[in-house]
From TrEMBL, chains A, B:
<dbReference type="GO" id="GO:0000976">
    <property type="term" value="F:transcription cis-regulatory region binding"/>
</dbReference>
<feature type="domain" description="HTH tetR-type">
    <location>
        <begin position="12"/>
        <end position="72"/>
    </location>
</feature>
<dbReference type="Pfam" id="PF17929">
    <property type="entry name" value="TetR_C_34"/>
</dbReference>
<dbReference type="InterPro" id="IPR041483">
    <property type="entry name" value="TetR_C_34"/>
</dbReference>
<dbReference type="InterPro" id="IPR050109">
    <property type="entry name" value="HTH-type_TetR-like_transc_reg"/>
</dbReference>
<dbReference type="InterPro" id="IPR001647">
    <property type="entry name" value="HTH_TetR"/>
</dbReference>
<dbReference type="InterPro" id="IPR009057">
    <property type="entry name" value="Homeodomain-like_sf"/>
</dbReference>
<dbReference type="GO" id="GO:0003700">
    <property type="term" value="F:DNA-binding transcription factor activity"/>
</dbReference>
<keyword id="KW-0804">Transcription</keyword>
<feature type="DNA-binding region" description="H-T-H motif">
    <location>
        <begin position="35"/>
        <end position="54"/>
    </location>
</feature>
<dbReference type="Pfam" id="PF00440">
    <property type="entry name" value="TetR_N"/>
</dbReference>
<protein>
    <submittedName>
        <fullName>Transcriptional regulator, TetR family</fullName>
    </submittedName>
</protein>
<keyword id="KW-0238">DNA-binding</keyword>
<keyword id="KW-0805">Transcription regulation</keyword>
Length: 218, 218
């Protein structure tokens, strides 16, 4: 039993190291350009071993996203514990603060989310998918319930909806504001300020108005 | 002069036919998988001729998006002319109706927008870019001004912002709700309804709340 536990632990450690390396590469390279063999090489393991841990590149990056989700939920739980979210304004403040942190620190998370449905989830084992989704769903629900208990403004399913919409706003604003430098220069030179779509400002503003509108309807 | 006009007309006709063919292929194929040579072949022209009209694949699809923008603005202008948008509720109704039409009929437009900044605008002649952007900006401003004159609720620059945010919501909700069939089956089977993120419903709801929040702040 002890041996099995140790080996399980070692496996998880190895899987973690692989995820770390994938994250490191993803920071400077697009998903399409990363090769599994490159990850194996950087870790000094064989392709065969790598594929024992993650059957496909999509599977590897899907698990990386799952780890990011887990971290986000954990962070959120900790924030909620410390913060007063006893009314709508305080809840809104917390959501926008968390969103600002994501925008500043978690470019990887936003990029992973934007390829989730269209790329990652298309090439994953059904079993892994079911297990991950169920785990995440239950965890997500748990955190929504904690928020609901602390802040009775929105129902748990509304809270889940808010965070899914937040994801869409992050991905959409990121994509629509990712203008190449040449384009930004042109916008400045020809005074087309209306085209300047600053990612952070716009994502936060959109989320803020969305929350206000939702609250108004509730 | 007459001859030049005719030849200009013929050129525009040819360019239009190329854009039509690109649109047709894009309906069933992703941008990355479409080859310029394939488009040329389908039109019965040489690669050389195709590249006279559009120097790069990005340029071709950027112009296709520009054509879509032009059509959208024209449609919007026509709708505004016919509709009563004398107050916030009527303006909101018009925006949401137009958005529903985009979602139902213009999958191509949404897909083009989502690759605009990150792909298309990275490989375009500066001159073409400047000319297109300026034309679009002036046209966009014109329509925003018409809306403003008919409906004094939002200022012209707020109206432009609304339509840029609409673009982000469309792209974000589309990406986050594009779940493969397997995933949808799992969601149903394991009763994780909170993960069902219907594109049309959610995009319209998000936009509706966003507008209400914006109106509230105005």
């Amino acid at each position: 039993m002890a041996k099995r536990a140790r080996s399980q632990e070692a496996k998880e450690e190895k899987a973690g190291a692989i995820l770390d390396m994938a994250a490191e590469m993803f920071a400077t390279k697009e998903f399409e350009r990363i090769k599994m063999s490159e990850i194996a090489k950087a870790l000094g393991i064989s392709n065969g071993i790598l594929f024992v841990y993650f059957k496909t590149k999509e599977m590897l990056f899907f698990q990386l996203l799952m780890r990011e989700y887990a971290r986000r939920l954990e962070n959120m739980e900790q924030r909620i514990e410390k913060a007063d979210i006893g009314n709508y304004d305080l809840f809104k403040k917390l959501v926008l603060e968390e969103m600002a942190v994501i925008i500043e620190d978690s470019d990887m998370y936003i990029r992973l989310v934007s390829i989730r449905g269209a790329i990652l989830e298309k090439n994953i084992d059904l079993e892994v998918m079911i297990e991950s989704k169920q785990w995440f769903y239950n965890r997500f629900k748990e955190v929504a319930l904690i928020i609901y208990e602390r802040c009775k403004v929105f129902k748990p399913d509304e809270i889940m909806e808010i965070f899914l919409v937040q994801e869409s706003i992050l991905v959409g604003c990121k994509l629509c504001s990712s203008l190449p430098k040449d384009v930004l220069n042109i916008i400045d030179k020809y005074q087309m300020e209306g085209f300047k779509f600053a990612f952070k400002d716009n994502a936060l503003k959109t989320m803020s108005y969305y929350l206000d509108g939702m609250h108004q309807h509730d």
